[in-house]
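pipeline stage [seq->struct] | target=HD domain-containing protein | organism=Dyadobacter beijingensis | residues=176
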Amino acid sequence: MNLSEPVIEAIFATYEPAIGKDLAKYRNHVYRVFKNCLLLDPDAQNREIYAIAAVFHDIGIWTDHTIDYLDPSIAQAARYLRETGAGHLEAQVSTMIYWHHKVGAYTGPFARTAEVFRKADWADVSLGLLTFGMDRARLRQARAAWPNAGFHLFLVRKILPNLLSHPLNPLPMFKK
């Protein structure tokens, strides 16, 4: 199993100072989501877009210091795409990030990649309870290669204060 992806590493090199001490836990989550995408969609044409979306999908937690991170994450991805000459991917990556916590299936524009990305993230966040047809052994391999490193505990610690301060909207990143 290849343990690094050049696009992911290049983006992380830029964002490492913002992510700081949480880098290992977030990097491992990103790689697990990315590898899940490849399990669900092995089309080589989509590899780079999954890598980009994976890095940026939660990055607003660190860049904007918020649990309501979808719009900040989209803004960071859009800036990166424009700066690297890949602005033509902005709508697709934005869609993938915006809908990655959708509880049900996504059927709008860019449905193929957005739905793969949504399932890939849910499979990781659910600790493999949700597999969407992915082989459980492959999910375990990814978790062994990129351990949790406290990522789920980190999420709970971020979400709990928001639950207490915004009881009517405790999870603003979730979409119906």
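stage status: PASS
auto-comment: DSSP finds nine helices and no strands in the chain. Residues 17 and 163 are 28 Å apart (CA to CA).
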